Amino acid sequence: MDVREHLTSGETVPRSVTSPAVEDGERAARRSLRAQISKLERELAGAFVTAFPMGGLGEPPTARTRQARLLGLGELERVRDDLAERVRVARLTITERADAQAANRVLLERMLLEPEKHRSVRVACSDLGEPGCGAWQVRPRLGVIGMLMGWWQVKLSSGCPLARGRRPPRSRP
């Protein structure tokens, strides 16, 4: 029987069922949890956008249920905790990748300053966080002569493979 049916039938409803303090407390808790979840979802979306040029954040977790339903307080807390963990992992991933890119940028600067100390070292543009498929590489200036004379230079290759036409079909013997 519904609370409204109790009221229309003239029976008294127990105080615990209609206690506004319990309803207000639960409503406030739900409102607070929904606000926290919303904030965490925005932070996770921002982390995804930040990490996308770096290679993304990996696979998102799969949905557990496919039916729409109202979550209880415990389930809302679990969702909030899962989102907080995903945001923490995303921030850690972004920090690690940013540190690796910074180290590669320092290496590139050292290569440009002293190429003879970094012979045949290669740093891809993607390792620097730059778009494209090029690579910075220390090479001898004039081939074998430059190698023997110690003339080294840093070159940026385009890195992209040359476009080739379609191969002719193989002839069968």
Low-confidence stretches: none
User: What value does the average pLDDT take?
Assistant: 80
Measured distance between first and last alpha carbons: 85 Å
Structural class: mainly alpha
For the record, the count of structural domains works out to: 2
Number of helices in the DSSP assignment: 4
Strand order of the largest sheet: 1-2-3
Instruction: Count the E strands.
Output: 3
Shape: elongated
What is the gyration radius calculated from CA atoms? 31 Å
What is the makeup of the main sheet? 3 strands, antiparallel
- List SSEs in N-to-C order: HHHEEHE
Q: What does this protein look like?
A:
With 173 residues, the chain is mostly helical. The protein has 2 domains: 95 residues, no CATH class; 47 residues, no CATH class. Helices cover 50% and strands 9% of the residues. The protein is built from 4 helices and 3 strands, in the order αααββαβ. A 3-stranded antiparallel beta sheet has the order 1-2-3. The longest helix is centred in the middle third of the chain and has 41 residues. The radius of gyration is 31 Å and the shape is elongated.
